[in-house]
Amino acid sequence: MPDSQFWGIGLPTETGPGIRLFWRDEQNEFQHALLSLDDGELMPAAENRETEGGHHFVHMHYEFHAGMAGIWFVGFFTMIMLVALISGIIIHKRIFKDFFTFRQKKGQRSWLDGHNASAVLTLPFQLMIAYTGLVVFLSIYMPAGVLANYSNPQVFFSELLDEPMHRAETGVNADVVDLSILFQRAEVMMGKPGRFMNVEHPGDSSAVTKVFGWFDEKDYEGQLLRDEIGSVQFDATNGDVMHLNPPGEYDKGTPMASQRVMRIMHFANFGGYSVRWLYFIMGMAGALMMATGAILFLVKRRQKSLNEFGSQTARVYRVIEVLNIAAISGLAVACMAYFWLNRLIPVDIADRASWEIKGFFYLWLAMLFHAACRPGMKAWFEQWSVFTLLALLLPVMNLLTTGHWLPSYWLAGDWSSVGFEVTVLVFGLMSLGLVLFLRRKLTAPERYSKPAKRSEAIS
Amino acid sequence: MSVAMMMSVALCYAAMSGLSLAMPRHLMDVTDRRLTATQIRVLRWTASLVLILAYLPMWQVWGAGTGFVIWVSILSVTSVVLVLLLSYWPKWAVRIAFLMMLSASVLWLMQ
Predict the structure, then answer these.
(1) Which segment of the chain is annotated as a signal peptide (chain B) (predicted)?
(2) Alpha helices in A92-137 (DSSP H)
(3) Is the CA virtual torsion A298, A303, A308, A312 positive or negative?
(4) How many Cβ atoms are within 10 Å of A28's Cβ, its own excluded?
(5) pLDDT tens-digit profile of A38-48?
(6) ipTM over 0.90 threshold
(7) Mutate to test the interface with A, among B66, B74, B94 (most CBs of A within 10 A)
């Protein structure tokens, strides 16, 4: 860590017991470690399993583990989602008549109903989440306004936020003053305890340190425009105060406040777990909307080919089918397998977190190959079977590797683990139902396709 | 989940099921009875009123803005549940609606 350009230190919190360290290594990569509270030593690997955990899903959903390119990639498709949502509303002629309608087991009709119902009923959420997702990266997706007026965007942001600019490295050596004194001074200036401190360019005369105030998620519950947590920035070479951002009401002007509200709505940071559960269900409805829409496209064309691609039509439909399977059941399998990797990859392996991510993508790729090699219905059936097994056996594997299971989590009052186990089981059971349905369809295609057609003739 | 949240969930579900039963095609799945035009209008207005009532506890606890966001979210989620019930177990969809209305009243009286 001595050559680090940037490092930070976090005090223990409720969910993260121990002192958290963060730094950028020589390759400018982010690293982190956890120190024991008792003796200040590094926590052993067994207690501090290096894992990407849930961050994998968060990072994937906005940058696809591909940095700036990934952010643009996701932004492009989010824009398409907005276009699809709005054009979907316009072409849906019976929004209010079909508001509560879902006719099951009626082939194409059911896919359309499922697509409509999941989208229409959760429409406010789908529009909000796509739009606010774009707004989070406002300055990346729409840089023209700033670039046209400022040669350096940093000048714009320092003016906008009324904060000092980032200091470039000078190459002149300078010692960092005693940080513990600065930490205490910051606590006095903010009038509240500190939680996190970072240092940029230590050892250089441009060194800057910043102390952030303590916050409890609960203090901000119900606030769509969250109060500032407070922070103080010092010149780390002499202890001069560079900037004080007092805790309390947010006062960076209306445009920044609007963006802040949208960020908070996107991150579901305003209502604790009950709101996160509501978001989760509506998010799942969104996934269902996309999956049913993609499947409907092919179901419709299987009834009557539209010959959009001339002589290649059948081949293109097959490619779309393979992609559908990989994107829907394949992705589900990869997500569930990721939780297995989290437990199964050896603890002492180097770069463990990156192996988890690699494993996820390799498995997803394997599902794509599988879908390409098998006939459509069989591929669906097999991939959902794998998903069912992975989901229903995950608690068993967890019991074998950690010794914990539902009742022990319950007794320990570990509610997030209880929630996770139950959710995984629910998904496993739903998928089991789907697998049984698909099996009946595979073994007796006659019996199931006929009534579907008859009812379609009636409706 | 807080009492206010339970109250809002119950009222949202009851209101949406009222609105769905005001449509003949959904009523058909539940009962052989037919409603007159006036009955349908009364049902629709009552359900709309209950819908607005569902916002009040959220407003009280979370404030107008945050409360609105959470109210819309609850509305979406309860509607999804309702549509699934209406499709697979229509009779239970209605029984649960009455149960929800009842429990909302009990919760309100207990306060």
Answers:
(1) 1-22
(2) 108-121, 123-136
(3) positive
(4) 9
(5) 777 787 765 66
(6) yes
(7) B66
